[in-house]
Amino acid sequence: MAEFTNERRVISVIVMNESSVLARVTALFAGRGYNIESLTVAPIPSSNMSHITIATNGSAKVMEQITKQLHKLIPVYKVIEHEEMVEKEMVLVKFPIAENLSDISALCATYNGGIVNVGTEMVIAQVADEPKRIKHFIEAAQRYNPCEIVRGGVVAIER
Amino acid sequence: MQMSGAQMVCEAIIAEGVKTVFGYPGGAIMHVYDEIYKQDGFEHILNRHEQAAVHAADGYARATGEVGVAMVTSGPGFTNAVTGLATAYMDSIPLVVISGQVPLSLIGTDGFQEIDAVGISRPCTKHNFLVRTLEELPRVLKEAFYIARSGRPGPVLVDIPKDITVDIGKFVYPDSVDIPSYKPTYKGNKRQIEKAVEAIKTAKKPLLYIGGGVVLSNASDLVRKLAEKTQIPAVETLMARGVMGAKNPLLLGMLGMHGNYASNMAMSETDLVISLGARFDDRVTGKLSEFAKYADIIHVDIDAANIGKLVDVDYPIVGDITQVLEKMAPLLDDVDTDRYNAWREILKRYNELHPQSYVDSDKVIKPQWVIERIGELAGEDAIITSDVGQHQMWAAQHYPFDRPRQWISSGGLGTMGFGFPAAIGVKRAFPEKTVINITGDGSILMNMQELVTAAEYEIPVINVILNNHFLGMVRQWQTFFYEKRYSETDLTFQPNFKALAEACGGIGYDVETKEEFDAALQDAIKQDKVCFMNVSTNRFENVLPMVPSGGALFNMMLPSTTENNGEVE
Lengths: 159, 569
Hints:
The structure holds 2 protein chains of 2 kinds.
Chain A: E1 7-16, H1 21-31, E2 38-43, E3 49-58, H2 60-72, E4 76-81, E5 85-96, H3 101-110, E6 113-118, E7 122-129, H4 131-141, E8 148-158
Antiparallel strand pairs in A: 1-3, 1-4, 2-3, 5-7, 5-8, 6-7
Chain B: E1 2-4, H1 5-15, E2 20-23, H2 30-38, E3 43-46, H3 50-64, E4 68-72, H4 76-90, E5 95-101, H5 117-121, E6 127-130, H6 137-149, E7 155-161, H7 162-166, E8 168-170, H8 190-202, E9 206-210, H9 212-216, H10 220-230, E10 234-236, E11 251-254, H11 261-269, E12 272-276, H12 282-285, E13 296-301, E14 315-318, H13 321-331, H14 341-353, H15 367-378, E15 383-386, H16 390-398, E16 407-408, H17 419-429, E17 435-440, H18 450-456, E18 462-467, H19 472-481, H20 497-503, E19 507-511, H21 514-526, E20 531-536
Parallel strand pairs in B: 2-3, 2-4, 4-5, 5-7, 6-7, 9-10, 9-12, 10-11, 12-13, 13-14, 15-16, 15-17, 17-18, 18-20, 19-20
Antiparallel strand pairs in B: 1-8
Helix pairs in contact in B: 1-2, 1-6, 3-4, 3-17, 8-13, 10-13, 11-14, 15-16, 15-21
């Protein structure tokens, strides 16, 4: 039955930009036993609000509760359970400079990115793409011996 | 007007019309207490423990329907208050609790009596504030009261650093609040209400399932009228006792783990649950998959998150019960009450088959008898508070509650030690009424220091201790489910309750017989002093009926079928 299967969902939570609002949101997830797969937060330009994007998973019933419980928090202005969205995630990867840079560069280009910094021992590549493709990119990048991988978490916008 | 932050706190309390504040001073809140000393807009009751102060404010709020206010200091003052906050949170009671905090410059340094109050109280308050500037203090106080009483009510904590209470600034108390992210829904959706009405008209076995939300919404009269108009039978949750009135022929009783037979059978067989301000708590539903198995469900609740949380709902209506029922009632003018005749007849027979009953005794005092007797002697006018355990269930089962806010009990959190301080708050709000805390020999010790408070302020609360020398409810579970291994529940070692009350400036009664009980209660009602009435009751009495934890509502242990059914041992 669909309502019991765990599904990945992305939620946008628009909150008043005040102290400890993020703590309220994350404490709600922790306290009620909901999962957070990734979380990003930043102020919404020219407003007194912030946009929190949470990737989570749960059954339809759990998702409904998450949305309603978030809504109950006093500083939560709006909760958007994304259906039709454009979803992007950024990742930064550090490679040894001895690796084949043109291969790395080509790989990054395939995934909407490129080399953004070159040092004496390392190069840093940046890629921004759909979360699923980011996963593929990270798998593909393994053969170039990445020293460090930093994922940025999901941001999403409803189409 | 220029004034200190401490003065602003007092001015806000006065502006909100609060007459009584319960609290306990300490270092971080001292400036506010200095201003309390100077003002005469409200009285302050010095409870002897912060937990009791919050429970007293809670009792005050439950009895009056207004926001209760408590004040505590930082650190341990605040942590002692947490149980009070959580108790109020679980039962949706409007409170504003003001706590002192270390000065802003010390926050985060592990200062003396510093604790992260907003962090700790986040999951047990409706909202909380750490005040960061003097400028925002008036707005925060205004919002705190507004949030506490609006929507689904609840406790709000305002944590104020000490330096902000010292600073001087301009005070203008706002007339209104504007929180763009907080807009409670009061009006029910018209279309959903119409659909629900249709469901009521086509149902054969509808049942009103009444919860504490009806009390909070002051909707009891509307609910009674609805029941009368439609002739639909009703069951009440623990929190809703008094809504229908004990004499109401449509009231079946309380449902749930210790609900009566007819109520639990009604819920098991109904084809339409009309849930008004109830939240399908596990102590009410028993095994969820068997709960109201054959019914469609109408769920009216001001909190959307309650709807569909535990059971699937067919007719969700988010809104205030009062407003929803005002819209719903006229649509039911043409309801055919004969439709439900057969249903009422079945329930009547269930009630005759297994009425709420107990076996009385001439040898020992039965706790149920005490409850009934209080009902007879204290009259409909008394307000009853309780602690938590067997005595609470017996009170809920057997007291003839006649109106809402007459029964004040910690339902959701189940806080032992709630009843006595809550009774102090109730009595302060209604000094002319008899206020009786029905308690047990376990619970009463959890806030017995309040004897001193009640004696000092001459708050004549009557504590009826149903003394079975056990933590009775746990003992009952041990009897039924743990093969009578009475692990840490034997309370044979006890204080001399009579002497204890007297030592604190109150009156004590030792009661061994029914005659002594009558005499003691009649005397206590006339006295202007707090009392402990130590009533020896049958040691092994059990609360029945009982639905074992996790069982289906219709599988009840009944007095007639249960071994050890409370016979004298």
